[in-house]
């Protein structure tokens, strides 16, 4: 187990290092360079030279990279000249909202997808299975923003007018009030619907794989009821691959959050990122990219660790 | 498409060649792996539906404008956001363009970008993965860690950064989408190359003095064609979605060019006016096309992956 952990941890560090190289290279590729991007198109050559000198941009590239890495390690992700705040400050207000949105919708997705997948596996190739298979197929072929739009049209505009068309704008502490909480329903729904489609497919095939295993036959032979076999034996084994799936779907979930936040004007990290893309606020774009990538790597690492904890076979071979 | 091309046109006619020489035995066509795959593919009715839908979408976008003539150059300020009528079958948008006609023009861009980006990404990814897997050692390590690092950045974030940096024109948009999409095929093909490079025929080529480049290009890559084709099909679907998302987020093709995602982006401003013809047609066009490509991809996976076949 320790060997496996150490090796996995080392891999993750290499990937995070790779991400910093990529973001560094991206800053070097900015049209007109960093100085132009920040000072604007009307800056004079002496101004640019002065800027480059002040920020160490006239140093050799490897020295610049070491400086960049040094800044990152000290928790300095950059400074937004548009918003006149550091990226860390911006994230401290925006990131928690995104985490709440992602947390709630992933939990809901799991709570729905797991039973749904089991049901489809048990009733495979019957009417319900075909129905939900088609629905999930359509859901993950659908542009997520279109799904959100349809939800808004159906539930947040005349004649129904059931829910607010934009996400909660208040403080996180106010989310428990009806006003703010109900505003969270549509963003959460549009995020979880897509995730449910994906997770239930995996849960279905993972349950199917386990239903034909020898241990199921043994349990049946011992006289365990159908429900007992399903919940005490199959469910626990079928859930293990879902751990990995959760880790692997993290990037997709982050991308989904970006779109959802942009549509519902929900002031999280995704909306911050989208606004920065439109104003070409590069420090924010690259700072957030590093954070999201590190979160993805950490998520995958955690998923692997949990997987190893849940499935002894991984530990032995790893 | 080449899968379909290898299906005999007239299966009931007597077959010539080696199959005709079989005497007495079963009348089953022995055929190549291609023919076998093609048979499994055609047996899958959903896949045939997928191909039909894709062909229909191409006809709709590229031949449609010849039959249904609309003015997609000049705006029509007397007919802004007009409801569907006999003059404009799907109404007009906020600039007075006929929506049905615009759906065709926008579809051309979506399909073109999707196809070219998928081909580019697959080609690059396949070569990258095959070289990494074949050469192995530290080069493999470096090449695959680059892939891992890029994959750690969620797709849409990477797309947006690139689109913000390089103001997109259509060729630039294709490049941006391809730049994000080549990672998955690279990983898949590397995995397959790792097992293929130990086969006897690779040793045989080596013994005969074949170079590494020859082994990779003429032997390893052709043997991964199944994986390549399946992945390329899914890539088209993903690319169409990626362009739609980028355009929707306002970082796609600049006007007057349009695509399905950009049309939706314009429609969003009229969500509350009940102008359904600005929201549903473009969205449905995307969903139908993407579902069709996904169906084809699924069926091709069944056709190529022998272990999944029931026979």
The radius of gyration of chain B is 23 Å
**Assembly state:** heterodimer
Principal-axis shape of chain A equals globular
Low-confidence stretches of chain B: 1-29
Portion of residues within helices of chain A: over 70%
Quick summary:
Chain A has 318 residues and is mainly α. Chain A is 77% helix and 1% strand. Chain A has helices spanning 2-29, 33-39, 45-54, 61-73, 87-122, 127-140, 144-155, 178-211, 214-221, 226-248, 250-264, 269-279, 282-310, 312-317; strands spanning 79-80, 85-86.
Write structural notes for this entry.
Chain A is globular and about 85 Å long. In chain A, helix 5 (87-122) packs across helix 8, helix 10 runs antiparallel to helix 13 (282-310) and helix 11 packs across helix 12. Chain A is built from 14 helices and two strands, in the order H-H-H-H-E-E-H-H-H-H-H-H-H-H-H-H. Chain A has helices spanning 2-29, 33-39, 45-54, 61-73, 87-122, 127-140, 144-155, 178-211, 214-221, 226-248, 250-264, 269-279, 282-310, 312-317; strands at 79-80, 85-86. With 318 residues, chain A is mainly α. Helix content of chain A is 77%, strand content 1%. In chain A, a hairpin with a 4-residue loop joins strand 1 (79-80) and strand 2 (85-86). Chain B has 311 residues and is mainly α. Chain B is 67% helix and 0% strand. Chain B has helices at 2-5, 18-21, 33-43, 45-67, 99-135, 137-152, 155-165, 170-181, 183-196, 200-207, 212-223, 225-248, 260-267, 280-304. In chain B, helix 5 (99-135) packs across helix 13 (260-267), helix 8 (170-181) packs across helix 12 and helix 12 (225-248) runs antiparallel to helix 14. The model of chain B is unreliable at 1-29 (pLDDT under 50). At the A-B interface, helix 1, helix 7, helix 11, helix 12 and helix 13 of A face helix 6, helix 7, helix 12, helix 13 and helix 14 of B.
